Target: D-3-phosphoglycerate dehydrogenase
Amino acid sequence: MPKALLLENLHPQARAILETAGFDVVTRTGALDESELVDALDGVHLLGIRSKTHVTADVLAHAPDLVAIGAYCIGTNQIDLRAAASLGVAAFNAPFSNTRSVVEIAIADIIALTRRLTVFDKEMHAGTWNKSATGAHEVRGRTLGIIGYGNIGTQLSVLAENLGMSVVFYDAAEKLALGNARRAATLEELLAVSDVVTLHVDGRPGNAGFFGAPQIAAMKPGSILLNLSRGFVVDPAAVRDAIVSGHLSGAAIDVFPVEPKRKGDPFESELCGLPNVILTPHTGGSTEEAQESIGQFVSNKVRDYLSTGSTTLSVNLPNVALDQPPGVHRLAFLHRNVPGVLADVNATLAEHGVNIEGQLLATRGELGYVVTDAGSPVSDDVVEALRAQPEAVRLRLLS
Model:
């Protein structure tokens, strides 16, 4: 029975799907540090995490039984994807499942900050009645600048337009503008015209420190900043300075450079206590609906990979879409992508009298993935011969 370890309080659907598929599932509520994770992965074939657990090359080197990692979130920068691929460990994430939840919290933040609801709420709880329109605005007619026009940015663009906002976006890649959104030629152009700037960039290393004091200084006086992407993208000290000076009228921050590992752990930030600043504990995608959808999506992907060899939407292996046809024996062979491997595989199969009923090959950078269906059982000699090939990374026999 394959063993799965699920960390960080994943939705019960994640466990239910895997148990139905025959996994022995162990769950833990918090994240694990490197040494704890090494110990916990003994005998584990499938690891499920969110954003707090870091799967390093050293962790992977000490987990010979690990076959797949499910990142039950959008980001995968907490996993050493290259090291995982080199060891034949497939990684899957949920690139779409919490998009709506993040978009909705962005809309909520924009309206709350533009109307200064945080200030009014704090004063009312303190017993002060301060009925005033000063500094409070409608979002209709204001300009939203979206940095990163991917799944979240595009859906946010559509909803913001429905609220009457004008939308300008900036992305390093060519993206199709939706509705009346306008592409900014440069980041500076976006910052100069936007009343609200929201970041939705990915976790690639090049985005570290992307938005600091110079970028904030280039924003319009009195504008609002949102960061619902990655904690290391925005300099929190620069945000604090801009709030204190009045250059920014508000900010909403959901992600931080250093975040507690477990629920209930203490949290510290230079942004605490500032006026018209919304701080949330990395809950942009944390709705019950999103977590259920993520649990289903990722568990189905890793289940299918272990049972059929399908790598559709894997973030680090060549993508091959497969089902499990009846009556065949499947060889899933991950190898280094060099000329002649497929010919050697087929020669080995022919030498051992294995009849090929179907075969698919895909490559991705340094790796190749060839899946072969045989009409009769595959002997241990065949498996050992293929594993002995110098280009072999990982071979799995799926019957």
Remarks:
- Residues 222 and 249 are 5 Å apart (CA to CA).
